[in-house]
Amino acid sequence: MQVWLYRWLLFRLMLRSGLVKLASGDPSWRHLDALLYHYQTQPLPTWLGWYAHLLPGWFQSASVLAMFFVELALPLGIFLGRRARLIALAGFVALQGLIALTGNYGFFNLLTLLLGLWLLDDACYPRAWGRVLLPGRRLRPRPPRFRPMLAAWSVVALLLGGWQLLQAVDAAPDSATLRQWDQSLEPWRAVNPYGLFAVMTTERDEVVLEGSADGKTWKEYGFPWKPGAVDARPAFVAPHLPRLDWQLWFAALGDWRQNPWVLNLMARLLQGEPAVLGLLKDNPFPGRPPRSMRALRYRYRFSTWAERRQDGAWWRRELVGVYCGPYSLR
């Protein structure tokens, strides 16, 4: 039963990721051109993402079709026998591998691949592994007293998970019981609705922090992983997830009123807080903190082949306006 619960979890994760893209009504998914934007607008792209962004349009459209096949068709193979399960697993591994090569998503890809191990059976592993991992021992069956608990939880997971899948396409029945289950279990993160990139971001804005000692000359703070200096190559950082760099991507999607923590970040930099300075790549005020700070909004895009051959820069950017500030500690 435990094996099938893990398979059910993987089924929901993959299938709902595809369903929400179609149900969102986002034209970039329906017109198969989402990958024309994705590689340069995702939170923390890698340098391989730069190359993927420059692939021809027909290849990007074909890649979107392949992605929909993996997320919408292959999950059905989980329940269609051993060969279908292994084919589905191969597709999941390929998709997660390509995602990990072109973008930094922390441990998400690894967790998804670990779920994929439940699609394998004993015949997929060399017999020698069993002798090494379990020398002379046999697994004991689960005590009977736990079976009713497992059966009860299986019913909840199947019903609530299926209801959430139907919600993705606005076909879920209006059930007060399932709504109550959903609300009760939500704080425990036990049965979650999944849905990645339901709406594609087509433009990339970045919040750039600057400080000044005199209110006239402004110097830019550098971050280790998010785009900043246009000549800095996008790097690999997964499976670590740098929360500050990641959250600044979300902050750029709105304004400072929706992200008041950005003001707290600026205040800590004005105070020269060592714990915060340790999260930065470049501190333009190593001696003493600045007297004023401001945040600017820049629009970034990947450079073209010709532009990069010209000056070696991975990005191009233009100033959009002031995000917030300038501020001083007063």
3D structure, described in words:
- A four-stranded antiparallel sheet has the order 2-1-3-4.
- The protein is an alpha+beta fold.
- α1 (2-23) crosses α5, α1 (2-23) runs parallel beside α9 (147-167) and α6 packs antiparallel against α7.
- Helix content is 48%, strand content 11%.
- The chain is built from 14 helices and four strands.
- The chain folds into two domains: 2-188, no CATH class; 204-327, no CATH class.
- Count of spatially separate domains: 2
Separation of the first and last Cα atoms:
61 Å
Question: Could you say which overall geometry the principal axes of the C-alpha atoms support?
Answer: globular
Strand order within the widest beta sheet:
2-1-3-4
What's the helical proportion of residues? 40-55%
Total DSSP E strands: 4
What is the count of DSSP helices, taking H or I runs of 4+ residues? 14
Secondary-structure element string:
HHHHHHHHHHEEHHHEHE
Rg result: 24 Å
